[in-house]
Each structure stands twice: as C-alpha cells, then as structure tokens.
C-alpha cells in the first residue's frame, strides 16, 4: 500500500489543502453495520476516492468525515479538529457538495452564489470568479430550475467553493449525468484539485476514479477491501491482456500459432488473443505486418472492483 505522504511527494502536490485522518470509524443502523472499522489518511492536496457498490458505506463514511454525523466509534480529524463538533473556523475551511443538492427556490445561478457567499461573508466579486470557473457565465441569469442536470451539478460545486475552502467533499457529483456532461465536470474537478485543495470523492464510476484520483479506497459491506493508487491496484490484479485484430488480418490458425497456447477467439468482429506475454505476441504480429486496426486492452480499475466486490447486481 502506498502511503499518502509518498504519493504527495511523488506527484509534487502544492501542500495547501488539509490532512484528514480517519481511524476505526463505526456506524450501525439496527443490525446493519454500515461502516465497520474504517481507517485511512488523506494527504494535503491529494485527490482521494471512496469507491464501492450501492450500500457499501461510502456516503455514511463521507458524512462522518464532513461532520454531518458523529461516529459511534472511532475518530475523524481534519488538521487535528473533530468535524462533528461543527467549529466555525473548521467549517469555513470545508466545502461540501451533497449527493442530492437543493437550491433556494426561484433564484438565478448568480443569485444562488451571491446568497451562499453572503452566508460566509464573501465579497460579491467572488460570484463572477466561480461562474467562470465552472463554465456558467452564460447561465448566470437563468433560474436553477431551468438548468440542465450537468449545469446544476456545476452550480452545486460552485456553491461549495464560493468561500474558497481548503478541502472539498464531493458525493457522487456526476451521478445521472450524460457522458459529455461528466467529462466536462471532470475538467472542473481537475482544476479544483490543481489549485492545491484536498478533494475527497465518492463514486461508483470506475473510469472517473481512474482518471481523477491519486489514490482510491474500495469499500464493500462497510469495510475497506483495498487502498492504493489506481495503477498499483490494476497491476496487483495480474490480469491478462486482450489483443484484438481486425477481421481478415490473420487466419485463426495463424493467430493460434502466434498465441503459442494462449486462448484465441474469433467472430465477425475479428480475432482476439488473450495473453500474459503481450510483448511476445505484439512482436510476432509486427513481424507479420499485422498491426493495422489492432487494439490492446489490459485490466482496468473496473476489473479490480469486480474482482473484489463480485459481479452480482445490487439495487
């Protein structure tokens, strides 16, 4: 497991954000142990992800870190402060975007930000900065009920950032967004983190975590199963590589000769060699001038996730 301090040093964080220490968190609801002895540390300036299927305990864990719930057992410290005590000085350093965001009725995007800013005593000019940062300048005069789902999510994040917090908590910020809106929001989240803020994200989108997060903790049934960088988790899976050839590139017999005993499948979409020796196979294909239209797919964070949590659907 990679230490958060090691990650920060390697990636060259600007250590502006706060450090989060979570130790032995427990939360139960009746007989259900929603969070079961969860511990981890988030380094200043790190982009940290909590991943897991529905009901894994991600949101409950995040709510305890944010101070919305007091842990039944264990502790959370944000720069040596306990967030559940709701200290005004600490709350000003935190920005929170909840899974389901609510806005004041009948206010425009600009008015929403002005209102949130006024609660923190923020200068009015900050609204223009945030509208530009989240790409909503042209929607400033539009009422929130008339914004698209992606625009509402960006406005929600802007409201969480209006007071310039050092740590930002995002609970499934791209849930229910279309692919274009998700990618657009990723750019916003990268900008937030690049400014030096610590970011803690919950998501069940593995591609999102793989692109954005420095480290991820995969949760299930209230426990952390694995915690490391996405790349290290994928390497640890030791999964084979799938090399796919366009139809007509090679005969099945030639593909099997190159595979040398590795599995080969063929259909109307082409031929696929599944191997743990991709360099050997790719070299042989190059020698036969068979690289046109080729695709190579290794394991992903999604493969790690499914290996750890299973493939059974959970509503």
UniProtKB/TrEMBL annotation:
Domain ABC transporter: start-end pairs: 20-246
GO CC list: plasma membrane
Keywords associated with the record: Antibiotic resistance, ATP-binding, Cell membrane, Membrane, Nucleotide-binding, Translocase, Transport
Subcellular location, principal: membrane
MF term (GO), any: ATP binding
Bilayer topology: Peripheral membrane protein
GO biological process, one term: response to antibiotic
InterPro entries reported in the protein's UniProt record: AAA+_ATPase, ABC_transporter-like_ATP-bd, ABC_transporter-like_CS, ABC_transporter_ATP-binding, P-loop_NTPase
SUPFAM superfamilies: P-loop containing nucleoside triphosphate hydrolases
Subcellular location: Cell membrane
Family the UniProt entry places it in: Belongs to the ABC transporter superfamily.
PANTHER family: ABC TRANSPORTER ATP-BINDING PROTEIN (PTHR42711), ABC TRANSPORTER ATP-BINDING PROTEIN NATA (PTHR42711:SF5)
Protein's recorded name: ABC transporter ATP-binding protein
Organism: Aeromicrobium endophyticum
């Amino acid at each position: 497991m990679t230490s958060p301090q090691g990650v920060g040093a390697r990636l060259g964080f600007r250590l502006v954000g706060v450090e989060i220490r979570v130790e032995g968190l427990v939360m139960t609801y009746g007989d259900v142990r929603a969070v079961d002895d969860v511990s981890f540390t988030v380094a200043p300036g790190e982009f940290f992800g909590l991943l897991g299927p529905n009901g894994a305990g991600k949101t409950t864990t995040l709510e305890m870190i944010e101070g919305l719930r007091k842990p039944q057992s264990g502790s959370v410290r944000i720069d040596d402060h306990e967030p559940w005590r709701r200290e005004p000085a600490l709350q000003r350093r935190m920005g929170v975007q909840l899974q389901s965001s609510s806005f004041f009725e009948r206010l425009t995007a600009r008015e929403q930000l002005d209102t949130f800013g006024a609660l923190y005593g923020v200068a009015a000019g900050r609204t223009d900065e945030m509208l530009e940062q989240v790409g909503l300048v042209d929607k400033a005069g539009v009422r929130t009920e008339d914004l698209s789902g992606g625009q509402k999510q960006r406005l929600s994040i802007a409201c969480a950032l209006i007071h310039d917090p050092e740590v930002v908590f995002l609970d499934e910020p791209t849930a229910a967004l279309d692919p274009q809106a998700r990618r657009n929001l990723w750019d916003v989240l990268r900008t937030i983190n690049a400014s030096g803020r610590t970011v803690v994200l919950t998501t069940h989108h593995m591609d999102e975590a793989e692109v954005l997060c420095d480290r991820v903790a995969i949760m299930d049934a209230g426990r952390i199963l694995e915690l490391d960088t996405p790349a290290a988790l994928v390497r640890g899976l030791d999964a084979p590589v799938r090399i796919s050839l366009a139809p007509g590139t090679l005969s099945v017999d030639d593909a099997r000769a190159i595979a040398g005993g590795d599995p080969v499948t063929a259909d109307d979409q082409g031929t696929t060699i599944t191997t743990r020796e991709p360099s050997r196979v790719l070299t042989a294909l190059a020698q036969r001038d068979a690289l046109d239209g080729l695709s190579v797919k290794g394991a992903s964070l999604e493969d790690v996730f499914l290996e750890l949590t299973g493939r059974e659907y959970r509503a």
